[in-house]
Amino acid sequence: MAIQKIVSYGHPALRRPAQKVTEINDEILQIIQDLKDTLKHIGGLGLAAPQIGIEKQIFIADLSLMNDKKYIGNKITFINPEIIYSSKKTDTDTEGCLSLIDIRGHVCRPIKIKMKGLMPSGTMRTIETFGYYARVLQHEYDHLHGKLFIDYFSPEEYEKNKDQISKYLKENKKILPEILE
Ligand SMILES: [Zn+2]
User: Fold this and answer.
1) Predicted confidence (pLDDT) per residue in 90-104, tens digit
2) Of these four, 5, 63, 83, 86, which has the most CB atoms within 10 Å of its CB?
3) Range of the domain at 100
């Protein structure tokens, strides 16, 4: 059991595209376990490896915190995921992120997606998801490509959160040799 520190906005790992996993070995399985331990400890719906400073294409999602029957079983670990279908139909809902913990905002995303990727066992799996589960998977997928939910904010929403967003950068400037906005 190893709870890792979650890096916050400004940390370069959140903006650089993560590397594909080439082999599922003990190191990768340990990263997955760390992601699970960290998410469970902090309480959240999903966590991507770059959020613990590891630039690899791995994320986990677990909607059990939603405390809603319809999300039972909406739990997955994806390695090297790809979105192979996105619906034209979109909806807008509120999102938050463990790397920008006090910011919430509206994000418009496709309502339905198909995602394909490796399971920790090494088998390839494709899942079709709707609604909030599809939203969480897309949010985590974005983390593997240097994209953050604040990138989808309207100019008004961004403006509303601007002070808070720049606070992260200011804090990180003090402790990191390099920051990426
Ligand atoms: Zn996030």
Assistant:
1) 999 999 999 999 999
2) 63
3) 12-175
User: Looking at the whole model, is its pTM more than 0.90?
Assistant: yes
Amino acid at 31: I
Local structure of 165: helix, strand or coil: helix
Q: Cα(96)–Cα(34) distance, rounded to whole angstroms?
A: 21
Q: How many domains does the chain have?
A: 1
Beta strands in the chain (DSSP E): 46-48, 58-62, 75-86, 90-97, 100-110, 112-118, 124-130
Distance 82 CA to ligand 1 centre (A): 17
As given in the structure block, the two tokens for residue 133 are: 């589960």
Please tell me which residue, 70 or 85, carries the higher pLDDT value.
85
User: Is residue 27 annotated as a catalytic residue, yes or no?
Assistant: no
Q: Is residue 1 part of a domain?
A: no
Task: State the distance from the centre of ligand 1 to the C-alpha of 26, rounded, in angstroms.
Answer: 25
State in Å: Cα 9 to ligand 1 middle. Answer: 10
6 touches 38 (CB < 8 A): yes
Q: For the chain, what's the residue count? A: 181
Of these residues, 27, 55, 82, 140, which one is catalytic? 140
**Ion ligand 1: residues, CB < 5 A:** 97
